[in-house]
Amino acid sequence: MRAINPWRVVTNLADWFEVRGVYVPRKDTAQVQPWREFGWLLIGWLLGLTLFVLVFALAT
């Protein structure tokens, strides 16, 4: 039976954000797409928030 690797889940999710949009040179006038531009940052923030909630949930 295959075990779930949390790191692989996080990297696959971040890669999914990157696949949705690819940087095209000289297209700097285009509207900013947060999921494409800040995918890793958003994943890190969500992971940090999840760990924060879990720490306090387990502390009670």
- The sequence of SSEs as H and E is HHH
The computed structural class is mainly alpha
Which band does the percent of strand residues land in?
A: under 5%
Give start-end ranges of low-pLDDT stretches.
Answer: none
Distance between the termini: 33 Å
How many separate helices? 3
Looking at the structure, what is the overall shape?
flat
Quaternary state reads single chain
Radius of gyration: 16 Å
Give the helix level as a range of percent. Answer: 55-70%
**How much is the average pLDDT?**
79
Number of domains: 1
Number of strands: 0
**Major sheet characteristics:** none
Protein name: DUF5808 domain-containing protein
Keywords: Membrane, Transmembrane, Transmembrane helix
Organism: Haloechinothrix aidingensis
Transmembrane segments: 38-59
Give a written overview of the molecule.
This protein has helices at 6-20, 34-37, 39-59. It is flat and about 50 Å long. The model has no long low-confidence stretch (mean pLDDT 79). Helix 1 packs antiparallel against helix 3. By secondary structure, it is mostly helical. It has one domain. The protein contains three helices and no strands.
Name a few traits of the molecule:
60 residues; mainly alpha; 3 helices; 67% helix; 0% strand
Question: In a few lines, what is going on in this structure?
Answer:
Helix content is 67%, strand content 0%.
SSE order and pairing:
Elements (H helix, E strand, L loop, with lengths): L5 H15 L13 H4 L1 H21 L1
